[in-house]
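In the previous lecture we treated proteins in isolation. Real proteins rarely work alone, and many bind small molecules. This record shows how such a complex is specified: first the sequence, then the SMILES for magnesium ion.
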Amino acid sequence: MKALWSDEVVKMVLKKRKLQMEDSAGFFLDDLDRIAQRNYEPSDDDVVRARLRTFGVQEYRISFEPQNTGIFAGGIGGDAGKEWLLYDVGGSRTVRHAWLPYFDNVQAIIFLAPVSCFDERLVEDSKINRLEDSFLLWRSVCGSKLLAKASMILFLNKCDLLKKKLDSGIQVKTHLPSYGERPNDANAVLKYLKKKFRDILRQQSPELRQSYFYATTVIDTKATAATINAVKDSILRDYLKNADLF
Ligand SMILES: Nc1nc2c(ncn2[C@@H]2O[C@H](COP(=O)(O)OP(=O)(O)OP(=O)(O)O)[C@@H](O)[C@H]2O)c(=O)[nH]1
Ligand SMILES: [Mg+2]
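The predicted 3D structure, ligand included, written as tokens:
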């Protein structure tokens, strides 16, 4: 039979497929012996690697130990912010309509934008680039009147996969023409994306508001714990500042 693709093309496709699988499937497939044990117990790494699609909106109550954060230790907080109500909303297009009722009186939004997805399309609509979809969604979240006072926290997430893709030679400008001739390395890409998200936030915000930007790899549990601590302190500080105004 006549070969349709050269070896080089097949290798490229497999490499790209492997990079996409490294989201989670690759991790679990490499560890089948451990996972197939009868007495298997998931490790922290297994938990953060699991792909668990959120349907609808999930509510969590989180209690913080006051003495554990710098801001509480300084005695600024008292009891404020001891218990937080956190809503995890499903991100796919088909479930976004369910978000609106939860936007009322929200203090902060944590928005995860997967930056490694610059060369991928939406499962729900194969015409739409996933990063472009994040820009559009960020635009509408920032412009929502109900969220006008909310602090906006953006995680430029999946930096590990971004680096792997760039190291394998995938060019950002091929998929995101506005990237132009900037260097094809992670720092330059993150700087460009941060500016792009920040510009959207400024254009869309009905009032001046607090915003925070983090480059994250949330499966790196140690680094993520430090980021979450910083986020927790900022949210509490903004809450106290707002409370002071009234
Ligand atoms: N390599 C890598 N994988 C990540 C990172 N962040 C998330 N993932 C993986 O991405 C997958 C998706 O995570 P989920 O929490 O299931 O997805 P979600 O973004 O909440 O999606 P919905 O619930 O459908 O809105 C999981 O397998 C995670 O392990 C990251 O920074 N790096
Ligand atoms: Mg989810």
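Summary for your notes: The longest helix spans residues 221-245. The longest strand covers residues 57-63.
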